[in-house]
Amino acid sequence: MTVILVTRPAGTRDPLVAELESRGYRVSAVPTVATRPIDVKWPDLHQFDWIVVTSATGVEALPEIPAGPRWAAVGESTAKALRAKGATADLVPAVAGGASLGEALPDAGGAHVLVVRASLADADLPARLRKRGAIVDEITVYETIEAPAGSAERLREALRLPGVAAVVFASGSAVRGFVKLGGPTDLPAVTIGPRTSAVARDMGLTVVAEAAEPRVRQLADAVAGAIPIEVGR
Fold it and tell me: Which terminus of the chain, N or C, has less C-beta within 10 A?
């Protein structure tokens, strides 16, 4: 059986696990990055023209869904989380990512925008919005923890499994966490996109495939295209 190591924060609950298993892989899920909520004082959300959310975790942190502001989501999974919370995304960029969202937000000039973000989020999104004339407030609602201590032994156990063929990364933080936890850099890597690939290469890993789009199915497609299932492993 061919084993794929998945490093996303949700562990076995991550939809990528089920997607890969449905394609015949054995999956070992070990989060090499975790999130922790931050206690914040929220501004009055009604004052904003746009509220921009950059992850499903950020959506979960929202204290309310106010009437009035328009909503922007960085990608489809974040938009789905918004719908589950009772809001509809008025904007989801064609290419998921902060830079794309910053370019796509309509009527940015003079707009009052709240960006709901993580502690290690890239600065591209707010920087681009400000360059386009938006008045941007940022609120950090959760901390990103690389190499969570609880994953150290789990990773060692996963790496002892016969047939581990590749590791999947969905963020640069997950790559750094993997290496900090002692993950081997000679294990082939499959990533969710160019930024994550760049971090993986900087950390000494070989990227054998990259998702065409930063979505679960496309990430699984990248795995399937690069890592054949070997019968009997």
Answer: C
Q: Which is nearest to 8 in space by CA: 57, 60, 79?
A: 57
How is the beta sheet containing 135-146 ordered, strand by strand?
33-37, 135-146, 112-118, 50-53, 70-73
- pTM of the full structure: 0.84
Q: Are residues 13 and 54 in the same domain?
A: no
Q: How far apart are CA 153 and CA 229, in angstroms?
A: 26
- 1 token code pair: 């059986």
165 closest CA partner among 25, 31, 16, 13: 25
Query: Which pLDDT value is given to residue 233?
Result: 44
Kindly indicate the confidence band of residue 186, based on its pLDDT and cuts at 50, 70 and 90. Answer: very high
- Can you tell me whether residue 85 is helix, strand or coil? helix
Take residue 67 and report the two structure tokens written for it: 């009437």
Range of the domain at 56: 36-144
Query: Residues near 231 by Cβ (< 8 Å), separated by ≥ 6?
Result: none
Query: Do 109 and 160 belong to one domain?
Result: no
Maximum distance among all alpha carbons in the chain? 61
Q: Is the pLDDT of residue 65 over 70?
A: yes
Instruction: Please state, in angstroms and rounded to a whole number, the distance separating the CA atoms of residues 4 and 104.
Output: 35
Are 9 and 142 within 8 A, CB to CB? no
**Total structural domains in the chain?**
2
Give the end-to-end CA distance of the chain in Å, rounded to a whole number.
4
- As given in the structure block, the two tokens for residue 149 are 């201590």
